[in-house]
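Reading a protein record of the kind used here takes little practice once its layout is understood. The reader may check this reading against the record printed directly beneath this paragraph.
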Amino acid sequence: MTDVAQTGLLPASQIAQQTAVIESSNGIFYGTFGDTHLTESDLLRTVQAVPSAIAKALKKHAYYFVPLTIADEEEVLIAPTYTVDLGDRAVCHRNVEFEAAEITFVSTRLMQDRFALAFEFFINASHHFVDAAGVPESFGNLVWSQAVAQVRGETSQDAWESRRRALDRNKSGDRINEKSSESRTDRVSGRKRDHASLREISAVPAEAAVDEKAKTSYFESAFSDAIAIYLLSLTIDFDYADLREREYPLIAPPALAERLRHIAELFPANAGYEFQILYRRRG
């Protein structure tokens, strides 16, 4: 505790206990602490972008916007202001259980602009929503049809990896090759296979068996990503290219637009917000 006092860091539990929680008009609970460098209007615009239909599922969550969140081995600590040294130790966010709620502390001073801050908040809120409400069958059908059609790219590293695992053809391909090899060996040696074995070989599908666990993870990742991008589009104007990351290829624009339109149908924007997809003319 001496080190904490010397650096000005405070336990996250203390911040949760002493900081007033505000309920936004859409039902989101949030609070601020320290020198966040946020204007009240920008923060309110971001928080209130979450449609009420989504906010209803987040009653057990609160979002605290703080300068820096530091995850030490023993506890989560909050810095009331920014320093370079503390910034090097900080993380973008951390979830903390407090009484009957879960509080997400978001490090505002690690975010370079409104885009980064809003996206960090929306990603967390969308994951919490999916954990509470699951994935609608209609959205699952949509993204799976895109996946089997081999639409280029994805919306996050998690979605990209889980989609790849779900459609991995190696395992079933190996089984088919093993069966074929056994069949050829038996023919060469003159041995006859019984009818049950022949039926077993013919029942192996030509296409790969789907990894259902990975498929479920893919649906959850793609759904939370789509919600976060949709909420971001309600808050600020941004280009498709702003979503690009180095770790994976970004999903093709038409496929992303299809997902976002579906999200907009499921969760209409609150009053004062508008969802639009604009296409830039070439040339």
The CA atoms of residues 86 and 135 lie 38 Å apart. The first strand starts at residue 10 and ends at 11. Residues 170-206 have pLDDT under 50 and may be disordered. The longest helix spans residues 212-235.
